[in-house]
Every structure is written in C-alpha cells, then in structure tokens.
Amino acid sequence: MLVLEDGRRYDGRAYGARGRTLGEAVFATGMTGYQETLTDPSYAGQIVMMTAPHIGNTGMNDEDMESARIWVAGFIVRDPSRVVSNFRSQRSLDDDLDSSGVVGISGIDTRALTRHLRSAGAMRAGIFSGDDALLTPGEQLDLVQSGAAMTGANLSGAVSTSEPYSLPAEGERVGSVAVLDLGVKTSTLKYLAERGFDVHVVPQSVTAEEVLALAPDALFFSNGPGDPAASDRHVELLRTTLREGLPYFGICFGNQLLGRALGFGTYKLPFGHRGINQPVLDKSTGRVEITAHNHGFAVDAPIDRVSESSEGFGRVEVSHYGLNDNVVEGLNCLDIPAFSVQYHPESAAGPHDANYLFDRFRDMVIANTTTSTATEGSNE
Q: According to the UniProt record, where is the region CPSase (predicted)?
C-alpha cells in the first residue's frame, strides 16, 4: 500500500524489500537511468516514482553506480521487468532493492499518481508491505503524517563522506580542487579529474580554515539532498572562501548555496524537477540544452536583469533558466570567479549537452591562476 499524507491510497504489489518506509513522494521523468537515480545521494529521504512504465529490464551493475549504495527511501514503478536482458547486467534491480532494504511498490497507476503530485505537489508518503500492510488505514496515515518534511531538513551529514580522500589528475595537471561532499556523485569526481584537477574530497563538516589550509586552486560544492535554507554553516564557509578569491563552481545544491551566499533567498518548488529531459536556456548563447535535474528547491533571483549581491560580491546574473517554468537554473558572478548550475552537467545516464561546463570551470581556474601569478610577479 502506498499512502500519501493527504489520505490518498494506492494498492499494489510488494517490490524489493518488505516492511515500511517513509519519505517525500516525488517523480522522475527519465526513460532510462534508474540505476544512476537510485544511487544518487541527492535522492536521500525521497520515495521516487519512475514515470516510465517499464523499469529494470537492463538489471544492475557495479560500473554505473553513482555512489557505494542505493539512497532512495522507497521506489515506485508500474511494471517491473520480469526478465533482465543486458550483457552488462550483473544482477536484477529487484535483488539490489531487496538486499539494500529498500521498500518498494509496483503495479500502481503511476500516470495517475504523477498527475496528482503535479497538482497537489510533492508530499510525505509511506509504503507498507508485509506485516506493515496489515496496519489499519488510520494507523498508516498517522505514520505518514508524523514523518519528517523535506522543508527545513539538513541531510548533508547523512550522505557526506566521513573522511577526506583524493583522486589524482588525469592527463595534463591544471591544479587542485577541494570538493565539498554534500552528496557528490562518482561521475562528478571523474569529470573533474579528467580536466586535470587533483580532486580533494572533504566531508561536509569541514571548516573554511581547513579548506584554505589545503591551498586548493578552486572550490567545488556538490549536489545533495535537503533544504538549502537549513545549511547556514556551508553558506558561511562559501562566503569566507569567496572573499579569499578562490574560484568556485557549484552543482545543484551547490547552486542554491551560492545563491544564498550572494544574498538571494531559496524556496521550495511545488513538485520539483527530476529527470534527464529538462529544457534549459543558456542566456549567453541562446542555446537550449536538454539537461538532467534533481531538485525540489530553487534560487529566488531575477532572470531578466543583472543584480547586485547584497553580501558584497558584486554583480550577479542568472545564466540559465528552465523553459518549462522559468526557474533559475544557473548563476554567474561578473566580478568574482564563481558560477553554478542547478542541473547535473555530468549526467551519467545522459544527456551530455551541458558537459562543457567542466571545461568552463577549468578555463576559469587557469585564467585565475595566470592572473594571480602575474600580479605576484609585478608586486615583486
């Protein structure tokens, strides 16, 4: 049984592990990429429904994992594949859900649920199977309504690494980048290393002093779950490092935290953007990119003009916005070396339209390093 906090109930078949799970019910619109979705730490605390009806046909493998485990709180599909057929498959999706303790449900009308969430908004929900399916409807609804809401949730500590670690640069070395792990994905680190960065991943509990002690050439804030309004400490860390002149690139949660650091607010979207087919306009080129998203919050900034940072960081422009609803999808600082995007340019499950942003970051760091070296030389 799937139970929503507004009282709606959906009968289905048990899928994955049996038991009870609570979380925020959301939908993801990708036709493929379910393994990347399941293992993306940004989905922590969420019961994810796939709008594509047939899920699991290519199975699961070790190569496409975006982290070391499945993070979703629960999983909803219409028609789970009865047969796994792919030369890269090592096991079935059902097996991985079961072994990971992820409670799911199948066989419900996912189209009807999608339409309801689009109208009523993402909301708390619960999946009940096994003995928990025998609870009365009132008991199930009470459990759902007593669950934690996503607004105000700080989940960075649950998904971040506990210890720092590093990846060496590939090819010609450009410099080093400190990556604040707020729920970082494996593909993000891979793309940074491929651009010539020594990648130093640090836990979300790190201080600004500890980051600066690494003497990195740049700072990167990753994607991650939760409400950006509940991450004041990370905002202050970013402000401190920006004032030190450290170049910055942020993705998804990192975009929202840059917005807050610059003085903008954030707000919760009605049902969010989740999937690998979201159209975004790059204002600098006029090009429409098809991008991968997973965010339920957004930055509150004007998309039609250049703004002045209330925190003293100079001029800021919205660089990208979503064509479905005009939501801010990127920020670009005009007076300091910093930019961010709300979507996922690494998009391991596709598409790859926005992959150039890693090249833009590399070029920004090289330019900043060259300028700093020239300034030091003239001072001598």
A: 1-172
Residue 266, classed as helix, strand or coil, is strand
Active site residue 252: yes
CA distance linking residue 375 with residue 2, whole number of Å: 62
pLDDT category of residue 375 using cuts at 50, 70 and 90: low
Residue 339 is assigned to a ligand binding site: no
Bridge-partner residues for 274, per DSSP?
294
310 is in an annotated binding site: no
* 297 among annotated binding-site residues: yes
Q: Where are the domains of the chain?
A: 2-146, 156-375
Q: Is 256 annotated as a binding residue?
A: yes
For the stretch 198-236, pLDDT in tens is 999 999 999 999 999 999 999 999 999 999 999 999 999
Note the pLDDT tens digit of each residue in 228-270: 999 999 999 999 999 999 999 999 999 999 999 999 999 999 9
Residue-wise pLDDT for 69-97, tens only, equals 999 999 999 999 999 999 999 999 999 99
Catalytic residue among 24, 66, 329, 346: 346
The answer to whether 51 and 141 are in contact (CB under 8 A) is: no
Q: Which residue's structure tokens are 């605390």?
A: 45
Amino acid, res. 242: L
- Nearest-angstrom CA–CA distance, 319 and 124: 33
346 catalytically annotated:
yes
Let me know how long the chain is.
380
CA distances in angstroms from 57 to 33, 48, 310, listed in the order given:
11, 18, 50
CATH number of the domain at 156-375, please? 3.40.50.880
Quick one: tokens of 57?
Answer: 């046909």
Q: By C-alpha distance, which of 50, 20, 46, 47 is closest to 35?
A: 50
**Residue 271 annotated in ligand binding:** no
Q: For residue 352, what pLDDT is reported?
A: 78
CATH 3.30.1700.10 matches 2-146? no
Its pTM stands at 0.94
The catalytically annotated residue of 66, 116, 252, 320 is 252
- Report the run of H or E that residue 112 belongs to, with start and end: helix 110-120
378 pLDDT higher than 70: no
